[in-house]
Specification:
The complex is a heterodimer of chains A (about 260) and B (about 80). Chain A is of the alpha/beta class. Chain A contains twelve helices and eight strands. Chain A has helices at about 15-30, 45-50, 60-65, 70-75, 100-110, 125-135, 145-160, 175-180, 185-195, 205-215, 225-235, 250-264, and strands at about 5-10, 35-40, 75, 85, 115-120, 135-140, 165-175, 200-205. In chain A, strand 6 (about 135-140), helix 7 (about 145-160) and strand 7 (about 165-175) form a beta-alpha-beta unit. In chain A, helix 1 crosses helix 11 and helix 5 packs parallel to helix 6. Chain A starts with a strand and ends with a helix. Chain B is an alpha+beta fold. Chain B contains three helices and four strands. Chain B has helices spanning about 5-20, 25-40, 75, and strands at about 45, 50-55, 60-65, 70. Chain B is elongated and about 50 Å long. The chains are: A alpha/beta (about 260), B alpha+beta (about 80).
Chain lengths: ~260, ~80
Amino acid sequence: MARKIVLTSGKGGVGKTSISASLGISLANRNNRCLIIDADVGLNNLDVVMGVENQLVYDMADVISGKCTISNALIQDKYNAGLYILPSSHAFNDVQVSAAEFRSLIYRLEDSFDFILIDCPAGIDVGFHRAVSGADEAIVVTTPHISAIRDGDKVLSMLASYGLNSISVIVNRVRGDLVLQGNMMSAEDIAKVLRYPLIGVVPEDDNLTIYSQLGRIGLNAHQSRIAVDLIADNILSGKTRLYDPTLRYKGLIGKLKMWLEKSI
Amino acid sequence: MNNKNQALSRLKRVLLQDKVHSYEGFLRVIKGDIYTLMSCYMTVKEPIDIDFDVDEEGDCNFCIRVRASNLKSPKTMI
């Protein structure tokens, strides 16, 4: 039976979809059958980030309405046979997919996969409830910005009432150089304030932006890839090994790198 | 205090404000109640000062400073 993990945030643009996609790839690379569901009905983007938009024929709404079978709608990743994507509709009326229908769809899928990652829409309305109701674990993604952390805190308060098995936090887009200079809160500081365990730290990484816009998020070995691989290991092992975004700015070469980046 | 620590204390304040809805209003209500209570026992001389923060366990630590004179003796109170 699959572990069903919802990736949520509150604030939009913190990197939920990119992290859902990267995490799905990492888990599949570790020989797990993994399904990523785009639960953002009407504002779907997972297909674009994963580079499968051309293969999209049917979507989650078509499965729920009985227009097609689940296997018709699932898209297998072209680079990893164990990774599947269930896209959401770009035109389906949001209220027409109820939480009960979404949950029932997940129950039908849970025996076929080791992991089901649910990419939750931003906000705390119907879409949030629908996505969370299908999960038994939650990861709240935030960035080190106060607005994102504040929304994350509200989402964490709401998640507490869902009776989930675990709730943890990923801090995305951490700038190691700014943390070292004392100009940005560290992921550990943020987790302490939020009072939830940290499961991952992902650095700010231009390569992630570049490759996700090309739809080839899983094909490069960049810093965020290493960070997400550690998150996958943490999910699988229950241990907590975190990426240190300050590491590349430590020592003589690191300081030189930091000085050069600041000068440019 | 560096930018990181300033951001941290601002974040704590923002989250606390969200929980008590109106931080300033919340403090005003507490100050009013403390003034009423303490005025039964003494003459409160200056505006009451309250600081509070949330610790790592999520508990609130209150620090209340009151300057007063003319402490009433128990006999006077009766």
